[in-house]
Amino acid sequence: MSHKAGFVSIIGKPNVGKSTLLNALIGEKISIISPKVQTTRHRILGILNKPGFQIVFSDTPGIIEPKYKLHGNMMEFVNQSLSDADIVLFITDHTRESEQDEALIEKLRLIKTPLIILLNKVDELKDNDEVFAKVKFWKEQVNCEAVIPVSALNKFNMDLLLERVLMLLPENPAYYPDDQITDRSERFIASEIIREKIMMRYKEEIPYSVQVEVTEFKDEEKLLRISAEIYVMRESQKQILIGKGGNAIKAVGVAARRDLEKFFAKQVFLQTFVRVKENWRDSDKLLRQFGYKEE
Ligand code: GDP
Ligand code: MG
User: Fold this and answer.
1) Whose CA is nearest to atom 13 of ligand 1?
2) Predicted structure pTM score
3) Are 75 and 26 in contact, with CB atoms under 8 Å apart?
4) 199-212: per-residue pLDDT in tens?
5) Cα(261)–Cα(254) distance, integer angstroms
6) CA 19 from chain center: how many Å?
7) Rounded to whole angstroms, what are the CA distances from 199 to 38, 127, 190, 207, 208?
8) Cα 125 to middle of ligand 2, angstroms
9) How far does CA 77 lie from the centroid of its chain?
10) How remote is the C-alpha of 72 from its chain's centroid?
11) Segment (H or E) for 33
12) pLDDT at residue number 62
């Protein structure tokens, strides 16, 4: 029997729902989500294994102009994921942002890989005519295989999307073992779950100044023992993160533990430590240590 396998890159502006889509397609929460832009900092693979095919999706940070060094490295991940893809999924939503971005549309026209455009968050559109108009707009603007209205949140049209992807997927043996759903380690997923809770809880610069590193991940008989260090850039941020009497960080811990237990299906003992590491976002050495930069 023939077997299909290939790489599918998910690209699009920040906040359009790339990570939500990846999780919907894989059926597990491997990429963290929040209403804030730039939640996803790395390239994350989500692997869908079914009899006869394997689709390796990659979730990328959104398309942005580099501002800090961290952003520059994030954009390298985006470009890298375009160069080795068999299929590209460009996601947009009903805000007019992408439609008016000439430079972005120009870039999409340059993509030589088969391209599918997804119009996400259609659950928020009441008017069907509006959906049709947007589908028409994208079909006229960019030469692509299909424009599909979807709702990643409600898993609407996921079957149709998979069907189109399968049609374009090349014949290949599987790239990864068929029980693997992501290329990321359990430690990485644990640190991302903790970071998601911080992204959701704090305002302004805190979410973007935080780095989480899991320093202990011990699978014991009855429980999973996880220790994490949370790095911030300044002493003042450390105080905000911890909160009065440690209340804020405690709440992060409670929410994170709940999700960790869900993901790992095991009781979790979580310890967090907040530390100051000045300007980690601009330091090559620290970015390498945190895995944003190749050796
Ligand atoms: P990313 O930055 O492109 O990865 O976007 P996320 O997946 O982190 O999602 C950004 C926000 O959009 C989150 O608040 C999601 O819950 C929301 N979102 C994603 N998909 C949908 C959808 O289909 N419908 C609606 N209403 N919201 C969505
Ligand atoms: Mg994301």
Assistant:
1) 35
2) 0.75
3) no
4) 988 877 788 889 99
5) 11
6) 4
7) 10, 33, 14, 5, 8
8) 22
9) 12
10) 17
11) none
12) 59
